[in-house]
Design goal:
Elements (H helix, E strand, L loop, with lengths): L5 H11 L4 H13 L1 E5 L8 E2 L3 E4 L2 E7 L2 H8 L5 E5 H8 L5 E4 L7 E3 L1 H12 L12 E3 L6 H12 L7 E8 L5 E8 L6 H15 L6 E6 L4 H9 L1 E4 L24 E2 L1
Parallel strand pairs: 2-13, 4-6, 10-11
Antiparallel strand pairs: 1-4, 1-5, 3-4, 6-7, 8-9, 9-10, 9-12
Length: 264
């Protein structure tokens, strides 16, 4: 039996506790983060794709899988497909009147109605606020952070392989008397700062009630504040980037999240 994926675990947890909003939000988060194989009617034409649609009494549904072998097992033959990040596909489908069927035939299959996709797309469109923050007057160890939130944050940072060295969570006290938690990202790749801030904001949004107010800041190892954070903060290590693999001459449709295909 194939090893269960992160999406399987998230969906199973949601199915086991249908009244648990945090489990539901974790499942939505996992769907947005997943790499998905979208079943197509035929081969992509330039940047245009035509999803294969399953017509039901509840409307039309596109079909995706989080593993290529799952798609192959479902259709039992070579099938045209596009590979898309979950968040890109959700934004593409929102407003089209289409639902989404995920991992049909597996133990953790899930079906999302069009209204659910539109709601999720709205969440994904919320960009984190940016600005010049005042330097904290004092840094302390983090307090009263829910353990499930720490687990969700750790998982999200682990998916940011190679984008930074580490991150530290601490409680920051400011000159105006306010207290907030700060997540300090250390030695981030400059071009990745916006993506990292968005990923951290996603962790807060998808956790729901109980998530801490969280500022995100970027420092280098040589910054004095980074050295202090290493003493008082809770450390998250980001994994080393994977070794590069030989890429095909022509990328698969949807493999570039900055140039998503167009639905036909």
């Amino acid at each position: 039996m194939a090893e269960a994926t992160d999406l399987d675990h998230a969906f199973q947890a949601m199915l086991a506790a249908p009244e648990d909003m945090q489990a539901a939000m974790a499942a939505y988060s996992a769907l947005a983060d997943a790499q998905l194989w979208l079943l197509l009617e035929g081969e992509a034409q330039d940047d245009q794709i035509s999803p294969h649609l399953f017509e039901t009494e509840d409307g039309a549904f596109t079909v995706v899988f989080d593993r290529e072998e799952r798609l192959a097992g479902f259709v039992s033959e070579i099938a045209a497909h596009a590979v898309l990040p979950g968040r890109v596909l959700i934004r593409m489908l929102a407003g089209q009147g289409l639902g989404l069927a995920v991992n049909l035939g597996s133990d953790a299959e899930m079906v999302f109605a069009p209204a659910q996709l539109e709601w999720l797309a709205d969440i994904l469109e919320i960009a984190p606020e940016s600005g010049e923050a005042l330097p904290p007057q004092e840094l302390r160890a983090p307090r009263d952070i829910p353990e499930p939130f720490l687990t969700a944050l750790d998982a999200r940072l682990a998916r940011a392989s190679g984008l930074a060295r580490a991150a530290f969570l601490a409680q920051a006290l400011y000159a105006d008397g306010s207290t907030r938690h700060i997540l300090a990202v250390i030695d981030a790749v400059p071009e990745a700062e916006t993506a990292l801030a968005g990923a951290i904001a996603d962790a807060v949004r998808f956790y729901g009630d109980g998530a801490p107010d969280l500022d995100v800041a970027f420092f280098t190892t040589d910054d004095p504040i980074a050295q202090h954070l290493a003493v008082v903060g809770l450390r998250f290590d980001l994994p080393e980037p994977p070794q590069p693999e030989e890429r095909p001459a022509r990328p698969a449709p949807g493999s570039d999240p900055d140039s998503p295909p167009i639905l036909r």
